[in-house]
Design brief:
mainly alpha
Length: 173
């Protein structure tokens, strides 16, 4: 069956009568019809497939090298999964120091300073009147000894806590 097409079909360059298609990368020849000098340059089929396999496996490295020359964003390299720590090393050091300060402070101030109507009188928590951010975590002058129920009421009602001087705005000195 003949097809009506304007596209010329390319056949092997060995002779005009050859009906074999040229093999890709063999300069227009089918592999079986390659001249000896071209076969020597290209090698046999096994060598070609091995060369192609090596090229495919080194593709990531080649892309990385090309991107580094062009200053493009680099592709992510696979690294072993390492979990992100929940707290930083410096914060862990601060929290150890805070635990010592809290223990000393609770020995010196065992009674709740808030004294709401449902207070248990014995202080169990430290309320940071100015917050815990940065150096305020270790600043003892902003510590307020409170029981758990009073601490919850202070945290839930910040306006009331400011009226009773149990909380201070961080923006004010």
């Amino acid at each position: 069956m003949a097809y009506n097409s304007t596209i010329k079909q390319k056949h092997c360059k060995c002779s005009p009568d050859c009906k074999l298609w040229p093999t890709e990368g063999n300069k227009g020849y089918h592999f079986s019809h390659l001249p000896a000098e071209i076969k020597a340059q290209i090698g046999n089929k096994r060598k070609i497939s091995q060369r192609n396999k090596v090229n495919r496996t080194n593709l990531k490295r080649k892309v990385y090298l090309a991107q580094s020359k062009v200053d493009m964003p680099k592709t992510a390299l696979k690294r072993p999964n390492k979990p992100i720590p929940k707290i930083s090393k410096s914060m862990a050091i601060k929290l150890r120091e805070y635990a010592k300060l809290k223990k000393e402070f609770m020995k010196e101030h065992p009674i709740c300073a808030a004294d709401f109507n449902y207070c248990s009188i014995l202080a169990t928590d430290i309320h940071h009147s100015k917050g815990r951010v940065g150096k305020l975590l270790l600043d003892v002058k902003h510590f307020v000894p409170v029981c758990r129920s009073c601490h919850r009421k202070i945290e839930d009602n910040p306006d009331m806590a400011k009226e009773l001087n149990l909380s201070v705005s961080r923006l004010k000195n």
